[in-house]
Specification:
Helix content of chain B: over 70%
Number of helices of chain A: 15
CATH topology of the largest domain in chain A: D-Maltodextrin-Binding Protein, domain 2
Structural class of chain A: alpha/beta
Radius of gyration of chain B: 76 Å
CATH topology of the largest domain in chain B: Heat Shock Protein 90
Radius of gyration of chain A: 20 Å
CATH class of the largest domain in chain A: Alpha Beta
Shape of chain A: globular
Shape of chain B: rod-shaped
CATH class of the largest domain in chain B: Alpha Beta
Oligomer: heterodimer
Chain lengths: 423, 601
């Protein structure tokens, strides 16, 4: 389904932190004509794809330089040197840091051509009235720049990020070993701590993500409760890690995975049968003939939201070009492009004309594929008869349990994470 | 043989022991190798735990010695991995890959840690001091009215500035992010305070000072924000990235230890199994060898003494002249073999001696038999001479008597009577001539017509009957030849003579009976044929059964013939190694049995 997408998301990364030299390779920077404005875009491989860059350059007539890297690397780059970019693309859980670091400037909604089309998921926190907002830093809580220069949910005409790509994550399991569950009914985060799978369980190696997978699992089993899972106290963190370390000591976990290929290898080789997963990993395993099911947990998903930010140092021609690029992203074609990797755009209807009915029905409506659907690489990624797990876009985002979040206890969770991993 | 077998057995045991020792040695070497691998893997585990501990010490305490220790341990681990690269285990490569990633990440940590240290220890302090000094200077040079109020406000700003420093420092101590939020709020308040000072100041020096202060405050803020970000950065690297890399190294090293342990357990089981099996084998083979040794020793002794004892018995028997003495089988060319051969020669000599003795006995018996025969022949010859003389003398006497009568009649001139008497003389001479011819014929038996050949009696007697048909009709004798007569090995003319003589006898005697007949048939016995010639003549009294085969013997003087016919029969049968016997009672006919051996001579 997805090609590069979030594959490198976790490689040496988290919401904070640094990348390593292995991840320092940048694609060739396309130098444009001096006369054209040039913008620098820093972000991850999920959205910094060459096809998008070329298409944007062609459509906008500007020079766009992509600087994809590991999440940790790019956020350090952004927070310590805002001059190094005009546009920053990453996840909503980086916003607090960027804003705190004065690395980004508010975006004026009036300059966003399609702002009015952005759906309520990002603007108000719910995709529909019956939807869960989800714990943690739901994007809408960090969207608006308040008068006191803090970020909040109160609507203003200045925003900290332009909403665009987003999706829901959960865990994957090998249905040849674990009996297939019923989405939203029997599939549960608690499966991650089911002792029947002892020694064959893995978590994603990121405290801002994997920690919530563990928290959802422990809570589902009734081993712990939180005042607010999205912002745990140190005591709650201690309690959760005590449980996790106890499981680890009993040999419950194979370990943690640090990249999507690593997660694929773990399940493909049978080292794990259930683990935190990203959708590209699930697709890769299916492609290898492993019947990996991407669960729709009854407790809800762990969701993530992409953010497009404007550098605090961007000004003049570059800032205008940056706005052009942001508007281009919501203009329809990029949303359709990214939909073929399984990701959603914040103004879906604008992308609908760029998708076939079968594509729209499968990717957004959660209906059965009626024809072979191609991915962004031009190869068939979905065969007729397949149904996207979790159902439609609305259904999935109505069931968000928590958003990837950098909690106040982030640094403390890092220390505890080290203990958990090395136990 | 026993010694060879024992030697082979011993050789087998030695070979088994050698192979076992070699195999066990190899297993032991493998065991040691796996043990070393295990030790090495344990060292890797120990080192990775230590390297992570040192990395954490460096991260939290900033001790350069800890960073140096990380470098040293990394070098040691590289050497450890390099020394086991020839191991056929993909995990070695995996460990090396993770170790490289681990160390590269640590180098990044070092860099970020150093930058943060510089920011905190130098940039942050300087910026804080600069802002603080500026505010203090501003306070000192506060002009005009409301100085006390301005001082109070300035002091409040200064205090807020100190709150920033305090909270930032507290963050670095506690890593509690809420301190940064407070510091940020404090910074914002300081900025607001400075802005309010600027708004009311008119003095250009103070304005400039406040502007510098504000600029310094921005620098101060950016420094501590960068320090915070770098702190978070290396904390992430060391606690998440490096921890995961270290865990993968630990995991794979433990797996390698498990694999090595499994291999060692396998080898241990194999060695124990081999030792058990070989011990069992040696015990069994040792026991078998002892048994064989005893067995072979016993047999070796037996193989020496028994032939000697047997030979002694044999020689004892041989000295008794036995030719049946059993000579033990002994094929070796040793002394016993020579004795065995000598015994064989001895036995052969005994056998030859006995043969010679038997021959001598046979010759003696034959001699005695010949002597008896000779005596009987002499008797017979005397009898024969007597009989011939007597029987030849009779016609001669008769002839001489009639000659004398003829002479007297001639003297008396009775010529006719004399001539009549000449017939008597002629008859007597003819009889004598007949006698002489028969004797001559008798003498020819066994001398002339000696050739023998298979004679089909069916054919011969059928022809014989045909030839005699006229004669038979003349005398009214019925000759019956039974079918399935045998083929005998004989001189055909002499055998034919036998049947002619028997037929002549029958003709002489049986014709006196009513419906005379002669029936010739046969019986087959185990080693001979019996031909019978049965008639219904007057029979022969038992007392004459042997006499009738005597020369010139006739049962009645009235009968024609010379009395040589049955004598010829007997001689012909003797010539064929056969016999002739008569079975008869007076008045009940007679049956002559001719016995012919089956075997060709």
């Amino acid at each position: 389904m997805n090609k590069t997408n979030r594959r490198t998301f976790l490689r040496k990364s988290a919401s904070f932190g640094l990348g390593v030299t292995a991840a320092l390779s940048f694609p060739n920077i396309v130098s444009g004509l001096n006369k054209k404005p040039t913008i620098k875009v820093v972000g991850t491989h999920v959205t910094l794809q060459e096809k998008l860059r070329k298409k944007a350059e062609k459509d906008l007539g500007i020079i766009i330089e992509f600087y994809p890297g590991g999440s940790a690397e790019v956020i350090l780059k952004a927070t310590t040197n805002p001059s190094s970019f005009d546009i920053y693309e990453q996840w909503s859980n980086s916003i607090k840091v960027l804003w705190q670091a004065n690395a980004i400037q508010p975006i004026e909604t009036k300059k966003l051509k399609y702002w009015s089309e952005i759906n309520d998921l990002t603007k108000k926190g719910r995709i529909s009235p019956k939807a869960n907002i989800g714990l943690g830093d739901a994007p809408y809580k960090l969207l608006y720049v308040q008068d006191n220069e803090t970020l909040g949910a109160g609507a203003t005409d200045r925003i900290s990020f332009m909403p665009y790509v987003h999706n829901t994550d959960s865990f994957g399991y090998n249905s040849s070993i674990i009996e297939r569950g019923v989405p939203y009914e029997t599939e549960s985060w608690s499966w991650l701590l089911d002792t029947r799978y002892q020694g064959k369980v893995a978590l994603v190696n990121a405290p801002t993500i994997g920690l919530f997978d563990a928290a959802l699992a422990a809570k589902s089993l009734g081993l712990i409760d939180f005042d607010n899972m999205g912002n745990m106290t140190r005591k709650e963190v201690d309690e959760l890690f005590k449980i996790m370390i106890d499981f680890k000591r009993r040999g419950h976990f194979r370990g943690v995975w640090s990249s999507v290929p690593h997660s694929v290898e773990l399940m493909e080789t049978g080292q794990v049968v259930i683990q935190s997963m990203f959708s590209p990993g699930v697709s890769a395993l299916k492609g290898k003939g492993i019947p990996c099911i991407y669960a729709a947990p009854k407790e809800g998903y762990r969701a993530w939201h992409g953010v497009m930010c404007l550098s605090a140092k961007s000004a003049g021609e570059q800032r205008e070009a940056a706005y052009m690029f942001m508007n281009w992203w919501l203009s329809g074609w990029p949303g359709a492009f990214i939909a073929r990797q399984g990701y959603y755009i914040s103004n879906p209807e604008r992308s609908r004309p760029f998708m076939s009915k079968a594509e729209w029905d499968y990717w957004y409506e959660g209906k059965e594929a009626t024809e072979p659907l191609k991915g962004t690489d031009g190869k068939v990624s979905v065969n007729p008869g397949e149904i996207r797990t979790g159902g439609s876009y609305s259904k999935r985002f109505e069931n968000v349990a928590i958003w990837n979040t950098v909690m106040d206890t982030y640094e403390y969770t890092l220390l505890k994470w080290n203990e958990f991993v090395l136990t | 043989m026993g010694f060879i077998a024992s030697a082979l057995f011993s050789l087998t045991i030695i070979l088994v022991a050698f192979v076992t020792f070699n195999g066990t040695t190899k297993d032991f070497i493998d065991f040691v190798a796996f043990s070393k691998h295990s030790q090495n893997d344990m060292a890797i585990i120990k080192n990775i735990s230590e390297i992570q501990r040192q990395a954490l010490v460096f991260t939290y305490e900033g001790y350069l010695s800890a960073a140096e220790a990380v470098h040293n341990i990394h070098s040691d681990m590289l050497e450890q991995i390099s020394s086991v690269k020839d191991r056929d285990n993909r995990r070695v490569g995996v460990i090396e890959r993770h170790l490289n990633a681990y160390f590269e990440t640590f180098q990044q940590v070092e860099k970020e840690r150093q930058l943060r240290t510089e920011l905190v220890n130098l940039g942050f302090r300087n910026a804080a001091t600069r802002v603080e000094n500026n505010i203090v200077t501003y306070m000192k040079q506060l002009p005009g009215a409301d100085v006390s109020t301005k001082k109070f406000e300035s002091q409040r700003v200064l205090n807020r500035l100190l709150q920033v420093e305090k909270n930032v420092i507290r963050y670095f101590d506690t890593l509690d992010a809420s301190n940064i939020s407070i510091a940020k709020e404090s910074i914002t308040e300081v900025k607001r305070g400075l802005d309010s000072f600027l708004d009311r100041e008119e003095e250009s020096d103070s304005v400039e000072l406040l502007r510098q202060t504000k600029h310094s405050l921005d620098t101060y803020e950016s420094i501590f924000i960068e320090a915070v970000q770098r702190t978070r950065g290396y904390l992430f690297l060391v606690n998440v990235v490096m921890a995961a890399e270290a865990y993968e190294i630990l995991y794979n090293a433990k797996k390698m230890i498990e694999e090595s342990n499994r291999e060692m357990e396998t080898i241990e089981d194999e060695i124990i199994s081999t030792i058990y099996n070989v011990t069992k084998f040696l015990l069994v083979t040792g026991s078998v060898m002892i048994i064989l040794f005893v067995f072979f020793s016993y047999n070796i002794v037996r193989s020496i003494t028994e032939p000697v004892l047997k030979l002694a018995n044999t020689f004892h028997e041989l000295t008794q002249g036995s030719k049946e003495a059993e000579i033990p089988l002994y094929e070796l060319s040793d002394e016993i073999g020579s004795l065995t051969k000598a015994a064989s020669v001895f036995k052969e000599k005994n056998r030859e001696t006995e043969e010679l003795l038997n021959k001598s006995l046979m010759l003696t018996k034959e001699l005695e038999k010949n002597k008896a025969e000779l005596e009987r022949s002499n008797d017979e010859l005397e009898q024969f001479v007597y009989t011939v003389s007597h029987d030849l003398k009779s016609p001669l006497v008769t002839s001489m008597g009639f000659i004398g009568i003829i002479r007297k009649l001639a003297d008396q001139g009775k010529m006719n009577q004399a001539v009549e008497k000449l017939d008597r003389v002629v008859k007597s001479n003819e009889r004598m001539s007949q006698l002489i011819n028969d004797l001559l014929e008798l003498s020819r038996v066994g001398r002339i017509d000696k050739d023998k050949k298979p004679v089909d009696l069916n054919e011969m007697l059928t022809t014989f009957k045909d030839n005699q048909q006229t004669r038979l009709e003349r005398v009214g004798l019925t000759l019956t030849i039974k079918p399935q007569l045998p083929v005998i090995y004989a001189n055909e003319s002499r055998i034919l003579q036998v049947f002619e003589n028997i037929l002549s006898n029958t003709v002489k005697y049986a014709v006196q009976s009513d419906s005379p007949f002669l029936e010739i048939g046969s019986k087959e016995e185990e080693d001979h044929y019996l031909i019978y010639c049965k008639d219904n003549g007057p029979g022969i009294p038992v007392q004459y059964h042997k006499k009738i085969f005597g020369l010139f013997y006739r049962l009645g003087s009235k009968q024609e013939g010379t009395g040589i016919g049955l004598t010829v029969v007997k001689k012909v049968m003797n010539f064929h190694n056969g016999e002739v016997q008569v079975e008869s009672e007076e008045g009940k006919g007679a049956t002559f049995w001719l016995k012919f051996p089956k075997k060709k001579e």
